């Protein structure tokens, strides 16, 4: 690819093989393309919310275990109603970037003071839930006469 110029905080490249102009963000991710340079520059303005450039926004989300993860909103594509987010890893998971569709879900929130306070309340509730889960499991272990192979006298193979 050939770098043409910077526009609205994005690199404008030309891909000779695909014969189109590509918009690349500061992390090196292709976030849009067009058949003409003018069209690509117009898209860059939309993606970056104007000529002043897109300002990264601190955000939060939750992983599949309801653990808080922090990150940044790195770019927005108003054309396809999506955004790119970069999130820190959480407990054994690597960090990464992903595209999220803004039309169907709210998986991320701005890291405002209020949202951080709510996230801390969720953390406390998660601790309570973990304690309750452990207590329930301890009670389960006290059951007698489980219905399994031994109950019917079936031997291990």
- What is the 3D shape? elongated
**What is the H/E string?**
EEEEHEEEEEH
Low-pLDDT residue spans: none
Total count of domains: 2
The biggest sheet amounts to: 5 strands, antiparallel
Annotated CATH architecture of the largest domain: Roll
Q: Approximately how much beta-strand content do the residues carry?
A: 25-35%
The chain-level mean pLDDT equals 85
- Tally the beta strands: 9
Terminal residue distance:
62 Å
Question: Which terms summarize this structure?
Answer:
157 residues; 9 strands; elongated; 2 helices; 2 domains; alpha+beta
Q: How is this structure best described in words?
A:
It is a single chain. With 157 residues, the chain is of the alpha+beta class. It has 2 domains: 1-51; 56-142, SH3 type barrels (Roll). The chain is built from 2 helices and 9 strands; from the N terminus they run E-E-E-E-H-E-E-E-E-E-H. It has helices at 37-47, 113-140, and strands at 2-7, 10-15, 20-24, 30-34, 57-62, 68-77, 82-87, 96-101, 108-110. It has a 5-stranded antiparallel β-sheet with strand order 8-7-6-5-9. A 4-stranded antiparallel β-sheet has the order 1-2-3-4, covered by helices on one side.
């Amino acid at each position: 690819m050939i770098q043409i110029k910077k526009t609205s905080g994005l690199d404008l490249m030309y891909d000779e093989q695909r014969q189109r102009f590509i918009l690349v963000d500061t992390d090196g991710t292709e976030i849009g393309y067009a058949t003409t340079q003018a069209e690509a520059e117009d898209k860059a303005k939309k993606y970056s919310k104007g000529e002043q450039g897109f300002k990264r926004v601190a955000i939060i989300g939750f992983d599949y275990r309801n653990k808080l993860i922090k990150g940044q909103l790195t770019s927005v594509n108003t054309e396809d109603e999506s955004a790119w987010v970069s999130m820190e890893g959480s407990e054994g998971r690597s960090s990464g970037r992903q595209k999220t569709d803004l039309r169907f879900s709210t998986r991320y929130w701005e890291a405002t003071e209020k949202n951080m306070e709510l996230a801390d309340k969720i953390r406390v509730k998660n601790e309570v839930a973990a304690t309750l889960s452990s207590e329930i499991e301890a009670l389960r272990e006290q059951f007698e006469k489980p219905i399994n192979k031994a109950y019917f006298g079936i031997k291990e193979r």
